[in-house]
Amino acid sequence: MTAGNTETATTCPYCGVGCGLRVSRFGDAVQVTGDPAHPANGGRLCAKGSQLGATVALDNRLLAPVVDGVESDWGTALDRVAERFAAVRAEHGPGSVAMYVSGQLLTEDYYAANKFMKGALASANIDTNSRLCMASAVAGHKRAFGEDTVPCGYDDVEAADLVVLVGSNLAWCHPVLYQRLQASREDGAGPMLVVLDPRRTATAAEADLHLAVSPGSDTTVFNGLLAWLAEHDSIDQPYVDAHTEGLDDALAAAGPLDLAERAGRCGVSAADLASFYRLFADSDRVVTVFSQGVNQSSVGTDKVNAIINVHLASGRIGRKGCGPFSITGQPNAMGGREVGGLANQLAAHMDFEADNVDRVRRFWGFGAVAGAPGLKAVDLFEAVGRGEIKALWVMGTNPAVSLPRSQRVREALAQCEFLVVSEVVPDTDTAAFADVLLPALAWGEKDGTVTNSERRISRQRAFLPAPGQARPDWQAIAGVARRMGFGPSFDWAGSAAIFREHAALSAFENNGARDFDIGALAALGDDGYDALEPVCWPFPEGGPPAARPVDIFADGQFRRPGGRARLVAVNSAGTRAATDTTRPLMLNSGRLRDQWHTMTRTARAPRLNRHAPEPCLYLHRADARRLRLVADSLVRVRSCEGQADLRLKLSSSVGQGQAFMPMHWSGPYASSALAGSLFAGALDPHSGQPELKAQAVSVEPL
Ligand code: SF4
């Protein structure tokens, strides 16, 4: 897909839609357009993607390793990392070392990091910022399907009769998928659209029905739908009998329909709730798309299973235009799941059952590998704070900003015995605490693969030279592993060799036990890898390429005992967060249209900064009046955890009693406006995903 020397086909580094791009270079100028041949976007782009060319300048790049605050070289830096990791591990055991990685990593870097930690160092203390993104979806999939498998593709969204968006501002957060959805609705023949969101977002404003549900009440809504389906003879009994178990228990947990009482608990009218239920029951093909509004919750996994339950009970899964569809926030959240980048996964979609541990150990060739799950993100940093984890390597992420309890995270980083940070810029909030800073390659310089929300593996190709001493992350990991005596296991010639090993592991003694099997790609030569077209797993019979995702559960067979999916009994309790007289507003956090994460890239594009030039708190006019707050003035937001100062904006998109603030601003841009400083880190008990959508706060003039 490379035309001449000037045009490169690659993949967008932002959201989980995973759009294909064509990048042209004219001297120092870089022009980015949508790749018409890429199945995810067919040439479409959003504002962030189209401004990528404005973000590749080299100013403020980290161009050389820094050791103890002094510019250094790779040999010195890697010697130091290897020596400290080896010493800490020898003295305090494998549990005293850890890595915290990122959905921004390419699959090859992710694979190397996971093999280093769970293999070479036999420590499962490697987690990822994807814990903040979709860990509840992973846990929900495993409870229902026996495996973390997303059963939908983007063309299912277009083929549905009804699309339900839950906790997803698709128009801003996954814009090209939203464009595809709206294009399919243009002539009036496409899917109806129902949006469940406490805010009247840009997406909700375009919906046929917007249910402005109370924060955290999604389980109540979907348990009510399950009860409605049962009461209105809309359970697909043959499907349930043949392919599922647990319906009776799930119905008992869902409780009586009682529309008026249920609607009251959800904060919507009984008529609107009934309209939604009727629409669902009357639509043959339904896709329920869910995102961070569902996952980033202290009850996120139960919400996910309440959604999956209604699809299983009504047989709306495993066929075109049907299914529960978790869409990921980051470009390679799915690739991280494939390699086992979560602390509770081992590798290649295997968990820590004894057979899997032995299988992976034999494949990797180590005497021992990690045999039990490690610490999940929030717990991992708590362990750093307690001094139990003494050596930590942070790669491609900024936990001092993005994690809840950000002040505690900073205190933990400050007292960590040995902290390594791999970054592209030197001045992130997390990098400030590093003993060793390692210069990483950025998008456009690094080379590998990513997997998007519909299980589509695409190549990210380099079109810029590596600046200064910057290197791929996998090379930094291999360099440390070599120095620690694990050289032969990390002796890769390039990213193609890592990908082949990753593909081979997915097929190793798999025999159809797991859907994630890309073994057919293990035979790719370097040229074949370079030319790899986007492919979706699992591959149809005969191997890749797959033009569209296969209907993964079309045979009604799930990876659970007896092949049956499980309807999980979940009770209807909402989020555990509660307001009171001292903190009367429920704070929600999320993305803006034109910024990405902690803004290290998007803030470089002047056009993107125009959309929202500063961090603001959005409140309903009635709440501002009641609290005697003046529009556009500075206000202080306080929670039980901390405080943040922002400019107040009045917005009818936010319901009364609620507040919204963006997640993006951090150190170089606005150090006192951190969303993470306000959230207290309530965790979902199944996924370990922290609550970032509901926190009781007060607001006062500054
Ligand atoms: Fe990039 Fe997502 Fe926009 Fe596509 S929709 S161009 S992947 S940010």
Automatic annotation (TrEMBL):
Keywords: 4Fe-4S, Iron, Iron-sulfur, Metal-binding, Molybdenum, Nitrate assimilation, Oxidoreductase
Molecular-function annotations in GO: 4 iron, 4 sulfur cluster binding; metal ion binding; molybdopterin cofactor binding; oxidoreductase activity
One cellular component term from this protein's GO annotations in UniProt: oxidoreductase complex
Biological source species: Marinihelvus fidelis
Designated name of the protein: Molybdopterin-dependent oxidoreductase
Keyword Protein biosynthesis applies: no
Family, per entry: Belongs to the prokaryotic molybdopterin-containing oxidoreductase family. NasA/NapA/NarB subfamily.
Required co-factors: [4Fe-4S] cluster; Mo-bis(molybdopterin guanine dinucleotide)
BP GO terms, sorted: cellular respiration; nitrate assimilation
Shown stretch of the complete protein: 1 to 702 of 896
Domain of life where this protein originates: Bacteria
Domain 4Fe-4S Mo/W bis-MGD-type as annotated: residue spans: 5-60
